[in-house]
């Protein structure tokens, strides 16, 4: 079984975009998304509300095109495609500079014990948990709380992807401000032209739905039973991809809506594989066929959410109650990424 650079090199066979296929899938997705916006904006509420939910799911799929574009997996060098992706990024409150900076860091340091959690949910060790002050514990629990994920629109995107980066580095992350202005201009313009239903159900709520779904998806892809975290010296890229990134099993339709992002261990092995080739890569590489798995089943969701602190002694994530009872090992590394 291949590991390390050899495994990454083997995956390059699948890191070749089919440009015609990319455009076909994107245009079909945009067609369904536009149709869902129209129905949500103008139909009676009994039909508009389901259309809003559908629009939110379709936005998750469009986001995967954007995500892959910034990973140089699709539409590389396409001026039209790049322009479409940029405006979509502004609309969904994930400007290119902010997303690329934080997400690229995440890929290079997944499940590594480092001093800060950049582009990921924070993880602390048992020793750190015991040293944290009450307000620090509150902040940690707040970020990892399911309700915070449900309101990912506010906490992860408006604040995390727009306001905080712009306030920290206004010149470098002007995208944060532009995203807010563009997003609210679209919503406000829809209200002025077509009324509250178009603004709320057609343009705002789909973003709220897609960011909530995305917030939990991202969480479960790196917080699941069996995940492993390594210290700086022991950390290795392909091990992190295969043992610290989950396979999110779901029905075929949900794989379509989520752009195969459930094949997350494959994506973390080689982020230049286009989303529509991830299942092909998994099927063609034996090393990728026994991943850690999770699902949308409420039991699996609960299992992923209940463990929040890394215990190096047990080599697993534990609950807050277990962390309170645990005896921290001396001289543990710093926080986990």
List the helices and strands and how they pair.
Layout: H1 4-11, H2 19-42, H3 45-70, H4 79-91, H5 96-109, E1 124-125, H6 126-131, H7 134-143, H8 146-150, H9 152-168, H10 174-194, H11 196-220, H12 237-243, E2 247-248, H13 252-257, H14 264-269, H15 278-284, E3 293-294, H16 298-306, E4 309-311, E5 316-318, H17 320-325
Parallel strand pairs: 1-4, 2-3
Antiparallel strand pairs: 4-5
What do you see in this structure?
The protein has helices at 4-11, 19-42, 45-70, 79-91, 96-109, 126-131, 134-143, 146-150, 152-168, 174-194, 196-220, 237-243, 252-257, 264-269, 278-284, 298-306, 320-325; strands at residues 124-125, 247-248, 293-294, 309-311, 316-318. The strands form two sheets. Strands 1-4-5 form a three-stranded mixed beta sheet. The protein has 337 residues and is mainly alpha-helical. It has one domain (4-325). A hairpin with a 4-residue loop joins strand 4 and strand 5 (316-318). The chain is globular and about 60 Å long.
């Amino acid at each position: 079984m291949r590991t390390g650079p050899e495994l990454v090199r083997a995956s390059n066979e699948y890191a070749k975009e089919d440009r015609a296929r990319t455009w076909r899938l994107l245009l079909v997705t945009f067609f369904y998304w536009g149709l869902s916006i129209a129905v949500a904006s103008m139909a009676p509420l009994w039909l508009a509300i389901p259309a809003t939910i559908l629009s939110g799911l379709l936005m998750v799929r469009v986001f995967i095109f954007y995500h892959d574009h910034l990973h140089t997996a699709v539409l590389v060098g396409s001026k039209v495609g790049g322009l479409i992706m940029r405006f979509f990024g502004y609309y969904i409150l994930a400007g290119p500079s902010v997303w690329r900076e934080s997400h690229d860091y995440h890929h290079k340091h997944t499940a590594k014990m480092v001093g800060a959690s950049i582009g990921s949910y924070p993880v602390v060790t048992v020793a750190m948990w015991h040293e944290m002050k009450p307000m620090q514990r509150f902040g940690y629990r707040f970020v990892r709380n399911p309700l915070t994920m449900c309101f990912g629109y506010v906490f992860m995107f408006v604040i995390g992807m727009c306001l905080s980066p712009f306030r920290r580095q206004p010149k470098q992350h002007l995208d944060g401000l532009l995203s807010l202005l563009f997003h609210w201009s679209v919503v406000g313009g829809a209200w002025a032209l077509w009324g509250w239903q178009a603004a709320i159900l057609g343009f705002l709520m789909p973003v709220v739905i897609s960011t909530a779904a995305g917030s939990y998806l991202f969480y479960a892809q790196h917080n699941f039973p069996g995940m492993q975290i390594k210290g700086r010296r022991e950390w290795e890229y392909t091990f992190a991809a295969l043992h610290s990134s989950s396979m999110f099993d779901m029905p075929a339709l949900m794989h379509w809506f989520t752009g195969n992002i459930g094949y997350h261990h494959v994506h973390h092995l080689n982020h230049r594989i286009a989303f529509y080739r991830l299942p092909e890569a998994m099927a063609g590489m034996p090393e990728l066929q026994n991943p850690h798995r999770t699902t949308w089943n409420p039991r699996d969701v609960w299992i992923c959410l209940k463990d929040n602190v890394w215990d190096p002694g047990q080599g697993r994530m534990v609950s807050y109650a277990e962390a309170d009872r645990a005896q921290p090992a001396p001289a543990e590394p710093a926080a986990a990424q």
